[in-house]
Specification:
Blueprint (H helix, E strand, L loop, with lengths): L21 H5 L5 H36 L3 H28 L2 H21 L3 H29 L2 H32 L4 H7 L2 H11 L6 H6 L3 H12 L1 H17 L10 H19 L2 H6 L1 H8 L4 H29 L1 H24 L4 H16 L2 H11 L3 H37 L3 H21 L8 H7 L4 H6 L1
Helix pairs in contact: 2-3, 2-4, 2-5, 2-6, 2-7, 2-8, 3-4, 3-5, 3-19, 4-5, 4-7, 4-8, 5-6, 5-18, 5-19, 6-7, 6-15, 6-18, 10-11, 12-18, 12-19, 12-20, 14-15, 15-16, 15-17, 16-17, 16-20
Length: 483
């Protein structure tokens, strides 16, 4: 499909009620390969998300020596990208609703590229942090827009699998980053950490090229009044009959929903906002995501003393990352969101508590690595993919961009808080108790809170269209009138 990069076509305030062309609805559907191909391109944004946030872990082992970083400066070097991530969702809401999802991902790719070159050439820690901030804006954009785009274009029967594939792309990006870092560390290349960041340009170029051949989101096209184009894409994805049904639901959703920020907090959407914000917060503060970022440092504390050995052990962690995420892809549309979420959060809490005990009683590096893998594995089949998936499913079309931006802001704010605090928590527990077991006990406690939240609030969205899900979360009309 020809690229669509006209930046002067914002969505109109009113929705057109003209019917889509008949030939659009009668067009023959294509195979599921088309859907997977389009969503695969969008998932490259997820791959860059994982690559960008993972490459800093091994590079930090060298940055600490190069720039003589204190614990607070180490936290800032790690967290500067997360600060940028806070701004990415806010930028995403403005751009994804006016430019469209496709063009917003293009901007994210450009920011990734600028950050990669700037971080590789940085002459001081301030310049490095500034470039990482720009990359974080790109991460914030793609973290919101990639799953939103996939959720809006994927058929209901495949949506869970396809949005979870975006999470698979994140973990593949993480694995690729660690593999590149391990190769550079093993070769003892002078200033090898600079090449770690420069290597990101390869997937950046892949995303830019791929985006020239994917369509706009059909729900964004409908919101912009371009119903004929929306119908054509829905037909290619779902077939003519289901496309007609979904287009009718989209029309009704657009007519009944407003698009202002205040509408997020009306009775009909407040519960969805609370669910999204809670999942976003717990995805980060349960600790598994933070431990991924600091994995080389954690593994050094576990007994892998040499820098190359710590990075090498992280390679096995990333391989496990991929295996566990493939399990999540296989399970999400079979088991359902809610059972997978509850089981994973409970298992993650138990795994982190056992990991804390392992550090407290000085288990061997191999045993600590196995406990680390167990705790991380439960996270990877639950909160890691399902937070993004459920956030992308539960909001009506007109509010989805703003709602995902708000959820993304909460997520990246939690991420920054966790990344900034981890070195300080590690130093506190190590200084006072001679090991970092307390950090893991603290994270296990947060998992208990996350389990209670998911038990009470997490919906089951398996097999429903996006419009059915948002309608289900609304209270009855009578109770809304009373309020």
């Amino acid at each position: 499909m020809a690229p669509d990069f006209k930046f002067d076509s914002p969505a109109p305030a009113r929705v057109s009620t003209s019917a889509p062309a008949a030939d659009a609805l009668d067009a023959p559907p294509v195979s599921a390969a088309y859907v997977f191909l389009v969503c695969g391109v969008a998932s490259v944004g997820g791959l860059l998300f994982g690559y960008d946030l993972s490459i800093i872990g091994p590079a930090l082992l060298y940055l600490k020596d190069t720039f003589h970083l204190s614990a607070a400066a180490e936290g800032m070097a790690m967290g500067s990208a997360a600060i940028g991530c806070l701004f990415g969702p806010l930028l995403a809401v403005a751009l994804s609703d006016t430019w469209g999802r496709q063009k917003t991902l293009f901007l994210a790719a450009v920011l990734y590229g600028i950050s990669a070159v700037g971080a590789a050439l940085a002459g001081g820690i301030a310049a490095f942090d500034a470039c990482r901030f720009l990359g974080g804006v790109g991460v914030g954009l793609s973290s919101v827009v990639s799953p939103m785009y996939i959720a809006e274009i994927a058929p209901a029967r495949l949506r869970g699998r396809l949005v979870t594939i975006n999470n698979l792309a994140i973990v593949v990006g993480s694995f690729a980053a660690i593999l590149v870092a391990y190769g550079l560390a093993g070769r003892n290349i002078p200033a090898g950490w600079r090449w770690m960041f420069a290597s990101q340009l390869v997937p950046v170029l892949g995303l830019i090229v791929g985006l020239c051949f994917v369509p706009n989101s059909p729900r964004w096209l409908a919101e912009a009044g371009r119903f004929t184009e929306a119908a054509t894409i829905l037909t290619r994805v779902n077939g003519a009959r289901q496309a007609a049904v979904e287009l009718k639901e989209i029309r009704e959703s657009l007519e009944s929903d407003h698009g202002a920020w205040r509408d997020l907090f009306r009775v009909g959407t407040r519960r969805a906002v609370l669910i999204a914000a809670g999942l976003a917060c717990f995805q980060q503060l349960t600790g598994a995501s933070i431990l991924f970022a600091y994995a080389p440092e954690v593994l050094r504390n576990a007994g892998f003393v040499r820098q190359a050995d710590a990075i090498g052990a992280t390679v096995f962690l990333q391989l496990w990352n991929i295996v566990a995420t493939l399990v999540a892809v296989w399970l999400v549309d079979r088991v359902g969101r809610r059972p997978l979420l509850l089981t994973g959060v409970a298992g993650m809490g138990a795994g982190l508590a056992c990991l804390g005990a392992g550090f407290q009683f000085n288990l061997s590096p191999l045993h600590l690595l196995l406990l680390f893998l167990a705790a991380i594995g439960m996270y990877l089949v639950s909160l890691a993919p399902l937070a993004w998936l459920i956030m992308s499913e539960i909001f009506p079309t007109r509010l989805r961009g703003k709602a995902m931006a708000l959820a993304g802001f909460v997520l990246w704010g939690s991420c920054y808080l966790g990344l900034q605090l981890f070195p300080m928590l590690r130093a506190y527990f190590t200084d006072h108790f001679h090991n970092m077991a307390g950090v893991f006990y603290l994270y296990a406690g947060v998992c208990v809170l996350a389990f209670v939240f998911c038990l009470r609030m997490a919906p089951e969205t398996k097999g429903r269209t996006l419009e059915e899900i948002s309608a289900h979360l609304r209270p009855p009309a009578r109770s809304e009138e009373k309020l």
